[in-house]
Specification:
The complex is a heterodimer of chains A (336) and B (176). Chain A has 336 residues and is an all-alpha fold. Chain A has one domain. Helices cover 66% and strands 2% of the residues of chain A. In chain A, α1 crosses α12. In chain B, α1 packs antiparallel against α2. Chain B is globular and about 65 Å long. Chain B starts with a helix and ends with a helix. Classes of the chains: A mainly alpha (336), B mainly alpha (176). Chains A and B meet through α1, α4, α5 and α6 of A and α1, α2 and α3 of B.
């Protein structure tokens, strides 16, 4: 009986998180399109619903009802599997992201996270990098040269930035003395970890841009060189899942993790703790601001070449991350 | 307790199934895919045993960092070469496979009674957490082997850089 209770509880909670993320991601597309429109001095989606508010629903219907075209020479099993392999790990990161402290409603304690493992940071990193297989296998299964090149480029980029990202996150972990994301937030009540970890934050920004394939680093789908990169052969919802997973869900979830690691999670900003604003709102505002920062970078900067990207990863980002560990170690020795 | 038992059977049967896949798939990309699946299921087994740190590292290092390089290499191999089946390699692979099997069997048979004799009983691990337990052992009792292992890896890294380095890139099209 206890087993059934636990399983049902976790399933309901996961469903809430997943459906919430889906709806959120749908509206993040609208946000991005509006933002991109204004960056490029055009109105963006305008005609479906009031001021284009129903555009994501129209988009979803369109993508779902499109003809599902599968080229003859693709490897069918992997072709279908790849879109899921890009999508599922991105969602799985949600399992370890805490959205706030446990609170009580009607005598029922609700924990706004699925699990609070003490290795949550490592798991988030692991799931984040598992989604690379979706891209590589999509490239391989398409049996066509542009997707293949796109997949291999993505792999080359990700290998470099995974290492830098892993080392960069060591700084906050050292200061909190824990791998648990909730304990890391609790350790930041007095001062955010951005203070000595500024170098690590720079590295993390670059790594997230590279890992989610947003513009300065979107060599895997560089439309001027590779047609569409690894999604060239995809149609319909299988086509839609890749950007949904990478550009929206992964970016959003990784922004949440960055906020937790560097900007105090749901703690209010210094000197503003007296305001009657719930912790969840502070967290959402911070994640939203960081997400908008990524959009801003995406729609402003041109694309790097693939050799420049890997060069930055190994020659700049990795040394910066190591230097950060050194600085944080000295900081801990001096200030305790 | 019941949940752990169910999870153990699910993870271990899936791990064995995917391990069969690694051996019997003729398409090497499928074989690598089964390898990833096996490694993730083994990580799940670690989680059911309460070894979360090793479970997470298993996904992060084995299932991602190492297998990505396999995939990088394998996905550039032409399909017909991947499907080629040469019996001459079995002369070496069968004895080596048997050797590894015997070694693993000995370790698991004798290790089963050896476990839980150290300082870190399950209660202590639950108290201080996985990470602290591993770090305490790694940086006190096993510091020297740990450093030696990192030195060996450094040697391997420098060696591969030296082997892979080219004095200058020969552009064949430009020459001929």
């Amino acid at each position: 009986m206890e087993l059934v209770g636990t399983v049902v509880g976790i399933v309901i909670k996961s469903l809430i998180f997943i459906i919430g993320m889906f709806l959120g991601a749908a509206y993040l597309t609208l946000l991005e399109r509006k933002f991109a429109g204004h960056v490029q001095q055009r109105p963006g989606p305008l005609h479906v619903g009031p001021h284009g508010l129903l555009q994501p629903i129209a988009d979803a219907l369109k993508v779902l009802t499109k003809e599902d075209l599968v080229p003859n020479s693709v490897d069918r099993v992997l072709f279908y599997l790849a879109s899921l392999m890009a999508f599922v790990p991105a969602i799985m990161i949600l399992a370890v992201v805490p959205f706030g402290e446990p609170f009580t409603i009607f005598g029922l304690e609700i924990k706004p996270y699925i699990t609070d493992l003490n290795v949550a940071v490592l798991l988030a990193l692991a799931f984040g990098s598992l989604s690379i297989y979706g891209v590589i296998f999509a490239g391989w299964a398409s049996n066509s040269k542009y997707p293949m090149i796109g997949g291999l480029r993505k792999a080359a980029v990700l290998i470099g930035y995974e290492v830098a990202l892993g080392f960069a996150l060591v700084g906050p972990i050292m200061m909190a003395g824990s791998f648990s994301l909730r304990e890391i937030v609790e350790a930041q009540q007095n001062m955010w970890f951005i203070i000595p970890n500024i170098l690590a934050f720079v590295v993390v920004i670059f790594s997230i841009l590279a890992e989610t394939g947003r513009t300065p680093f979107d060599v895997q789908e560089a439309e001027a060189e590779l047609v569409g990169g690894y999604i060239t052969e995809y149609t319909g919802m299988k086509f839609g899942l890749f950007p949904l997973a990478e550009w929206y869900i992964a970016t959003f979830v990784l922004s949440a993790i960055t906020v937790i690691m560097f900007f105090g999670g749901w703690n209010p900003p210094p000197l503003l703790g007296w305001l009657p604003i719930p912790a969840f709102v502070w967290f959402s505002v911070k994640v939203f601001l960081l997400f908008m920062f990524f959009l801003w970078v995406h729609w402003t900067l041109p694309r790097y070449r693939v050799d420049q990207i890997t060069e930055i990863a190994w020659k700049v980002m990795l040394p910066l991350a190591l230097a950060n560990i050194f600085i944080v170690a000295i900081w801990i020795i001096i200030f305790g | 307790m019941e949940l752990t038992g169910t999870a153990f059977w699910v993870f271990s049967s899936l791990a064995v199934l995917s391990a069969f896949g690694v051996v019997f798939f003729r398409n090497i990309v499928y074989a690598v895919l089964s390898l990833i699946s096996t490694l993730i299921m083994v990580s799940g087994l670690f989680f059911t045993m309460g070894a979360e740190l090793i479970g997470a590292l298993q996904i992060l290092i084995y299932a991602v960092a190492i297998v990505v390089f396999y995939v990088l290499v394998i996905s550039t191999v032409p399909e017909f070469k991947g499907k080629a089946f040469q019996t001459k390699y079995m002369v070496i692979s069968i004895p080596v496979g048997m050797l590894i099997f015997v070694e693993l069997a000995i370790v698991s048979l004798f290790g089963a009674w050896k476990s839980n004799t150290g300082v870190f009983t399950p209660d202590v691990v639950k108290e201080v957490g996985n990470v602290k337990a591993v770090a305490t052992m790694l940086f006190t009792k096993y510091l020297f082997p740990f450093e030696v292992a990192s030195l060996i890896l450094l040697v391997a890294m420098i060696g591969s850089i030296v082997i892979g380095r080219k004095e200058h890139v020969i552009d064949e099209e430009a020459e001929g």
